[in-house]
Amino acid sequence: MVLAPSDRADVAGAAVSCGLRPARGRATVIALWDPSVRPTAATVTATAAARRSRERAASCGLDAQAAGRVVRVLLPSDDAQAVAAIERLVAVGDGDPVVVVLAGAWGAPFLPLLERSAVVRADGSPATVAACAGMLARHGIEVVPVPVPTGPVARMLLRCGWTGRAQVRRPAVGEDGQALLLVLLALLVALILAAALGAVASAMGGREERQRTVDLAALAAADRMRADWPARAGVPATISVARFRARAADAARRSATANGLDDVEVRFPDTTDDDAGPLTVRVRAAGSTTVAGVALSQSVAATAELSPPAASLADAADGAEYHGRLARRDGKPMRPDVASAFDRMKAAAHRDGRTLVVVSGFRSNAEQARLFAANPNPRMVAPPGRSNHRLGIALDLGPSASYGWLAANGRRFGFTKPMSWEPWHWEYRPNPGSALEAGAPKRVGTGGTIPPWVPAAYRDAIRGASIRYSISAALLSAQLRQESGFDPRSVSSAGAEGIAQFMPGTAAAVGLRDPFDPRASIHAQARLMSGLLRRFGSVQLALAAYNAGEGAVARCNCIPPYPETRHYVAVIIAMMRGYDPSGGFADALAIRLVG
Amino acid sequence: MSPGERGQASVEVVAVVPLVLAAAIAIVVALQAHRAGEAAGLAAHAAGIARLQGRDPVEAARAAVPGLARDRLTIAVVGDRITVRVRAGGPRALVARFDARRQVRARPVGDR
Lengths: 595, 112
Hints:
The complex is a heterodimer of chains A (about 600) and B (about 110). By secondary structure, chain A is an alpha/beta fold.
């Protein structure tokens, strides 16, 4: 069923018939009820099927005309007669699809027909279709728009009844157009979302750039502090804390400006009241941006710090080699003290039924260079300047049957196996990292001397403890200066007592009866440090363990992240600088970002 | 679909396919440009940090973008300027304009 204005009834009926599929040899019958139209006798071309259908329609006494692939039938003007004619058409049609077009003010007799129809199509403007839909909705009838021809040619073809060749499209109103509308709407939403996300991403990208800039600014400040640290924490200090901070802040600002950020705030968040100065610097840049009316924070901050390196000082090879007297065992050269220790170890092995043979001992850098050239694999042969054979402390031992005994007993005699994959390579390190291992001092004229700022009253005690426990006198001196300022009556707020600031429990553990006796305290300090050096293998870790406890260092095998401990270690190695060639590490402080 | 609708879909597809293709290419080029910019930023940042820490900035920059082909990343260190260039991925005719360049300025104290 089709509802259409009189002037569009022909085309509307034909357009609807485009969607029908008559059986082979059948034709669609378009029954027009339009009281304003009179029959005409025009002759048009038609298919044979259409002509046969016209004959069937004419047999019902109706005015029928075959046109193209359809048959046009003019229904009587009277409503009731028209409904009866439609019933006859359907009955005689024997399968011909029938499209009824009502082109006028139709009456109640048509209503049952409309109600029986699955779908009623309405032609006209969207408002007209909507009005029809509203009116028929009360009767439970669904109304959809009539398809429209795609252009004048399609319209002409429809008028002539050639429905198979005309192109029609669904009108853009009603449900048929909803999908397209939804797609367009979705595209629009996607575009808006993409634009918003792009703006947010751009803002975030800008924030990331700012973060990178403050990272570099914080590191630049820390680098300045690293360079200034020996001058600040050494003895005597040659720059003030204020100047130390100002130079670092200036470095941060210059770095930020060079990288495109003009306004940064520099702070030194260390809460320690240590006189030496801060080891941590924080750089912050405030700011915000607005995206689609929403304010996004662009504030960024970075924190950098100086860290004392935890590696063994012996690992900081500078290529120096041993130039002192050499002893020989099994024909191989080695340092005399190493030879003595080897003799003791060999005797013990012999008592256990084992044999020890020295396969290789001292090797000069030149010999090492030849070996490395023959086998340039750093895992197998250390590069020249890196092998500890040059120091006269490293021995390659055999035979392989003794490796197990060495692993179990080497440490008793001061030997350690630094590389797990070389069971034959042993190094004599009774106090790793502290003793002067190379014959030539790393800095001329500073052969582990007692610094001049040590009070005369304690110089002998320090010298004696240094010799007895094979510990750098400069290390003991710097530690005492940092602990108590050489005040034997000093008592800290935490209860540490004496010149070496022993807690009562620790004093008892190392057999120190009177912490206020400076000589006894200095010897106890050296004994404790000797044990810590053996255990941790580096001056920095031993100092950290002295300050923070062995457990805290052992848990991470690092300097614990306590500001006080980091300061303690950094200050002491700065004070050792210039007096102990194996401990002048203040200018080797590492800088890193910590937040 | 009526016989009259036949062919309509083809016409629509013919009209839409170039648009879809153009949009897809634009999206791919935009993504490649974004990736190049990100990589250049990361590499420049890593190089700047490495320089201040006394490490090799070129090595650090390459390590910061391990998925990037070696020939697409160029690092130049001149004075305190570290310039990182990243070639955008894809056909050069399309993406050459979107190659990324980032520069940071970093030099440790005493390295003059």
